[in-house]
Design brief:
The chain is α+β, with helices and mostly antiparallel strands. It has one domain. The chain contains 3 helices and 4 strands. Strands 1-4-2-3 form a 4-stranded mixed β-sheet. The protein is globular, with a radius of gyration of 12 Å. The protein starts with a strand and ends in a 5-residue tail after the last helix.
Length: 70
């Protein structure tokens, strides 16, 4: 698996699980999956071994929405 730089994900790119804004694009041998940060982490074990490349823009979450409060 490699990390690839593709066209940036936009607000029009939506998570395939929940429809939220996608911040991760997983390229597979037969297509692609888009995930929000939450679902990318939740399903990483399922796609990590089969992904051809991954475009991870989750660092934009803090830039766009501020730090996570706990």
């Amino acid at each position: 698996m490699t990390t690839t730089t593709l066209a940036p994900l936009t607000a029009a790119d939506r998570c395939d699980r929940c429809g939220a804004q996608a911040y991760v694009r997983v390229l597979l041998p037969t297509g692609e999956l888009l995930f929000c940060g939450h679902h990318a982490r939740q399903h990483a074990s399922a796609w990590a071994d089969v992904a051809v490349s991954v475009q991870d823009e989750t660092d934009r979450l803090q830039e766009e929405h501020g730090p996570v409060l706990r």
